[in-house]
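Revision sheet: structure tokens.
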Amino acid sequence: MIATETRGAVRVLSLDVPGKKNAISRAVCGALLEALDSAAADPGVGAVVITGAGGTFCAGGDFDDMGGKDLTGWRDHFDHIARLPRRLAGFPKPVVAAVEGWAVGAGLGLACLCDLIVAAGDARLAYGFDRVGVLPDLALIHTLPLRVGPVRARQIMIWGEGFDAAAAQAIGLADRVAPADGALDMAVDLAGQAAATAPLPVSYLKDYLAHGIDRALGFERDCAAVLFTTDDHREGVQAFRERRVPAFTGR
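Predicted:
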């Protein structure tokens, strides 16, 4: 589920969910948290790279993890997964995302929680939540405006825009563009450079910059949880599976 590799002072964590394009579920969140805790506790690890196996960073949330919940169940779900963005936002070591292929929805949220995003030249970064009638999760409503500015973030979230690597870099959604299949190597190199810096200032800096994320996560729990119980969400998921345009009704 999370494959780990150590390259010098860099710990590489790869989402590896075969058949689901590395979709994020509660189990994946838990496994990634454990891997992050291990990296944080290891004095030989100075930085972390998060990537995805099989040519895809992450295709979003796992639909199989989204059924059979009432409003209370969804609030509990969001409280559970909120541990991951909280951990990443204040993680004491530099974290770099290496995006190959698609980073959509929760996958985009995961990338934006990292300190730096390296996108392969053929990568695609997309909002995606508009397609299934819900609000963003993994604190994307907080991190996206910080990356691209509030006006551009508003447009992305309303119109559900997607970007290739060059366009993403032009608006600040990606920080570096690597050759196709080269995102991981570039990310490891950049993470290695960050690992050589003094660790305590980085830890204090990231703890300070994490302020504000709790408000976004509380909003997710209270508002996004409601939307996951709607007919529009069910229609969005069904339309996605049937590869058609959803017919939303506002219910």
